[in-house]
Amino acid sequence: MEQSEIILRAIGVLTETQEMVRRLNEDTEVDIDAGEAQLGRLVTEVFPSVEVPGDATPAEAGQAVIDALMPAAISLVGAFAFLFSELADIHDTERTEIKSTDLLRTLALRLSDTDSSAGHGPDPDLDDDV
């Protein structure tokens, strides 16, 4: 899965979580399992399955798991860190006219446009116009 796809999916998780929290604050019934399911699907799709040879020592088995999962962990954490940074920047500059949902939507649209037109990850200048 490309980094831009991971970021798009992370945007979905954040948006869904934000909606869930909003509904909880309104005392509306919320299906919390649905939010966990989306995050669970993202994690399942990002992390590869790992096969450890039956004759591997515990140290070799541990290293094989680390080697297989570390790139995915870095990609997933990087996606959420990128989104946090974008949201924090808007917050820290006190741009109250921009709502977090609007920023996430704008980022998703720009990432989708970048993916379809260039075939690669996010533009580092995503928030220039936001």
Question: Your description of this structure?
Answer:
With 130 residues, the protein is mainly alpha-helical. It has one domain (3-49, 59-108). 71% of the residues lie in helices and 0% in strands. It has four helices and no strands. The chain has helices spanning 3-25, 32-46, 58-92, 100-118. Helix 1 packs antiparallel against helix 2. The chain is globular. The protein starts with a helix and ends in a 12-residue tail after the last helix. The model is unreliable at 119-130 (pLDDT under 50).
Short synopsis of the structure:
With 130 residues, this protein is mainly α. The protein has four helices and no strands.
Helix and strand arrangement:
Layout: H1 3-25, H2 32-46, H3 58-92, H4 100-118
Helix pairs in contact: 1-2, 1-3, 1-4
How many helices in DSSP terms? 4
Order of helices and strands: HHHH
Roughly what fraction of the amino acids lie in strands?
under 5%
Number of domains: 1
What would you report as the Rg, rounded to the nearest angstrom? 18 Å
**N-to-C terminal Cα separation, in Å?**
27 Å
Structural class: mainly alpha
Uncertain ranges: 119-130
- Morphology call: globular
Q: Provide the helix percentage.
A: over 70%
Mean pLDDT: 85
Number of strands: 0
Largest sheet: none
